[in-house]
């Protein structure tokens, strides 16, 4: 397959990273993952906006502007003949002798990108999933999409070992988000999700689902909620680029609501899928 390396297109085997790359040593870098439908990147502008924000927050200067990046990613999709799948790319602060503080001289960022094929509806779990409720042990800047994902990795592994599909995390009883997704509940017809502050990543799918809710006239509260509220919710679901809207029907050994995907969840899921169908047809 072909990969993107800075501004070049290389064969996968040629994509080598320096051992002193700061992404490799410190996780000093940022990334984005997008969905490709019918050869086109879904919600591209929102992803690029978030990339610019992540870069700004880490004082990282991108190697080139996001229009040029989008052109390169388009070419990557075409060269690999991807109709349905994913684009992943990351940008690190570059390679230099290991020191925590930023390099004194200017060094070049390292950008790498790849694509992966997926079937059109892969990862749709409309029947619902089981999650584990686990401690959120991550740092306090979860709003930045950085390569540092150890807190997410450990919780995701623990959930897997508990027989769950993912974990929903909480800080001292306040639900934040999933290890790879945002978390929503529905109570008495109101959609509730953690506000987009430094405790969560403001998911592009989260933004899109909040827009859908407004369009459908579903009342929304962006506020913190407790693990108690999660356990007593009428409905729960997670959102991400990978899983779109996925109902949560079990939390540890307890079912959510009546143990079936909720009505508002399914309304949002259908509206989401219709928008994707429209995007595909455009
Ligand atoms: N929260 C975390 C911690 C994530 O890793 C992700 C996606 O990878 C999300 C939320 C969802 O973000 P998006 O909808 O942009 O995929």
TrEMBL record:
Keywords: Aminotransferase, Pyridoxal phosphate, Transferase
Signal peptide coordinates: none
GO molecular function: D-alanine-2-oxoglutarate aminotransferase activity
UniProt keyword Isomerase, yes or no: no
Pfam families in the record: Aminotran_4
Cofactor: pyridoxal 5'-phosphate
EC number, UniProt record: 2.6.1.21
InterPro entries reported in the protein's UniProt record: Aminotrans_IV, Aminotrans_IV_CS, Aminotransferase-like, BCAT-like_C, BCAT-like_N, Class-IV_PLP-Dep_Aminotrnsfr, D_amino_transT
Catalytic activity: D-alanine + 2-oxoglutarate = D-glutamate + pyruvate
Function: Acts on the D-isomers of alanine, leucine, aspartate, glutamate, aminobutyrate, norvaline and asparagine. The enzyme transfers an amino group from a substrate D-amino acid to the pyridoxal phosphate cofactor to form pyridoxamine and an alpha-keto acid in the first half-reaction.
Similarity comment text for this entry: Belongs to the class-IV pyridoxal-phosphate-dependent aminotransferase family.
Subunit details: Homodimer.
Name the UniProt record assigns to this protein: D-alanine aminotransferase
Organism: Sporolactobacillus shoreicorticis
The organism's taxonomic lineage, starting at the top: Bacteria, Bacillati, Bacillota, Bacilli, Bacillales
């Amino acid at each position: 397959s072909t990969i993107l390396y800075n501004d070049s297109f290389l064969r996968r085997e040629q994509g080598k990273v320096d051992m002193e790359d700061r992404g490799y040593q410190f996780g000093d870098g940022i990334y984005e993952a997008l969905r490709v439908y019918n050869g086109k990147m879904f919600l591209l502008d929102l992803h690029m906006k978030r990339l610019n924000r992540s870069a700004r927050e880490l004082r990282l200067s991108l190697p080139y502007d996001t229009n040029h990046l989008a052109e390169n990613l388009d070419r990557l999709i075409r060269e690999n003949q991807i109709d349905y799948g994913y684009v992943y790319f990351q940008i690190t602060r570059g390679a230099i002798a290991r020191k925590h503080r930023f390099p004194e001289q200017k060094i070049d960022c390292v950008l790498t990108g790849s694509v992966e094929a997926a079937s059109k509806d892969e990862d749709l779990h409309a029947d619902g999933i089981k999650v584990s409720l686990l401690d959120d042990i991550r740092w306090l800047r979860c709003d930045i999409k950085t390569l540092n994902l150890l807190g997410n990795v450990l919780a995701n592994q623990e959930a897997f070992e508990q027989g769950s599909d993912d974990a929903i995390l909480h800080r001292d009883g306040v639900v934040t988000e999933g290890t790879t997704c945002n978390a929503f509940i529905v109570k008495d017809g109101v959609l509730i999700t953690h506000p987009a502050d430094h405790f969560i990543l403001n998911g592009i799918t989260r933004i899109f689902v909040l827009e859908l809710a407004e369009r459908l006239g579903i009342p929304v509260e962006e506020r913190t909620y407790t693990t108690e509220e999660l356990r007593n919710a009428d409905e729960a679901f997670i959102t991400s680029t990978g899983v779109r809207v996925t109902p949560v029907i079990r939390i540890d050994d307890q079912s959510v609501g009546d143990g079936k995907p909720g009505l508002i969840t399914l309304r949002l899921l259908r509206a989401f899928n219709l928008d994707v169908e429209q995007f595909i047809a455009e």
